[in-house]
Amino acid sequence: MALLAYLPHVIYSTALTSLAIHHLAQRKALEADRAHVAAQLSILEDLRTRLIHAVNNQAASPRAEGADLDPREIERLWRLARSHDVWRARAEAAAREEVAGASGESAAHGEGIGWKEVLFGKRFDTKRSEELDRRDLERVRKEVEEAN
């Protein structure tokens, strides 16, 4: 009987803990997005400055070559800036979720999580883990063979 008296408190504390962890995860994701956007802006501003400097040098002395304007470096910076594109990554993730939602699968693993798994945990599937280990080992072997 004493356990029933504490049941609401256990449920409330579990709910509050869950909300707090979710809020923390959202805050960390937002901080990471801000850092990616700041990095992208920094890269693009540096690229803009270099291009303006090269154009001004070209206008001042048309015969001088733009030593600061290396096409490979510009392409590298452009690819680096595109790799930090948070908005494009979000759009791609949303598109993947829509496709997974339309097919009735979970976007993460292609399987749903039931309440039984939530409360009692997932059963350990040795066959599946051995298959995944074997696939990982084969992939590593191929990468090593390609590297040599």
What's the topology here?
Layout: H1 2-60, H2 71-83, H3 86-103, H4 115-120, H5 126-147
Structural key phrases:
148 residues, mainly alpha, 5 helices, elongated
Uncertain residue ranges? none
- Beta fraction of the residues? under 5%
Rounded average pLDDT: 79
Report the end-to-end length measured between terminal Cα atoms.
68 Å
Please tell me what the overall shape is. Answer: elongated
Helix content: over 70%
Judged by helices, strands and strand pairing, the structural class is mainly alpha
Number of strands: 0
Largest sheet: none
**Assembly status:** single chain
Number of helices: 5
- Compute the CA-based radius of gyration: 26 Å
What is the N-to-C succession of helices and strands?
HHHHH
What this model shows, in words?
This protein has 148 residues and is mostly helical. The protein is built from 5 helices and no strands. The longest helix is centred in the N-terminal third of the chain and has 59 residues, at 2-60. The chain is elongated, with a radius of gyration of 26 Å. The mean pLDDT is 79.
Short description:
By secondary structure, the chain is mostly helical. 80% of the residues lie in helices and 0% in strands.
